[in-house]
Structures are given as structure tokens and as C-alpha cells.
Amino acid sequence: MAVIQFIRGINEEVVPDVRLTRSRDGSNGRAIFIFDNPKTLAASADQEITGMYLIDEEGELMTRDVKGKFINGQPSGIEAYYVMTSENDWERFMRFMNRYAEANGLGFTKADS
């Protein structure tokens, strides 16, 4: 089990585009999640989005750096940023992403340097 939630108890069904960056020495990194037309936007009419929660069998990773995208005043997407400040944070994040990828039939493509 590996899920992403913006509202606790409601799993986001839309699979995001995820972009990763990492420092050369591995001491920190950042993941950018881009959700186009996420289901959470329709469900959030009476509930506020307070963060992005990455949940798996090890526990929960969380970020409050979440921004809505709007087109003509209508919600169209969500961007969320997850920052890793140590090698342990990076390894934990990658374990979550491997589980999430497996649960959603995703693959990983490494960018050319």
C-alpha cells in the first residue's frame, strides 16, 4: 500500500508527474509533484487542503508546500514540493516512491546528465 492524500482519508486517484533533483553530494534533494485535474479538487469543496501526505506501510511523509493551479478561475491542478534534507530522508522517500510506482504501474526514467 502506498497512497497520496491531500485530505486525510481520501486517496488521490490521479497519478502525478514527479520530478526529482538531488545535490551532487546526496545531502539534500527535492521532489516536485504535478497533478493535472486531481480528484481531490472536486472533493475539497467543504474541506481545506492543508498538505500532501505520502502514506505507506512505514508511515507518513508530509509537506505543507502545496499550491493550487487555476485556469479562468477554475481549479485545474495541484503542485506540491517535498524537500529532503539528508541521505536518510532521500532513501525513505525513494522507498515510498518505489511502492507507489509498483502500486500504480509506473516506471522511473533517469534524466541524461
UniProtKB/TrEMBL annotation:
It comes from the Bacteria. Belongs to the Psb28 family. Its main location: membrane. Keywords: Membrane, Photosynthesis, Photosystem II, Thylakoid. This is Photosystem II reaction center Psb28 protein. NCBIfam families: PS_II_psb28. It is a peripheral membrane protein. It is found in: Cellular thylakoid membrane; Membrane. Part of the photosystem II complex.
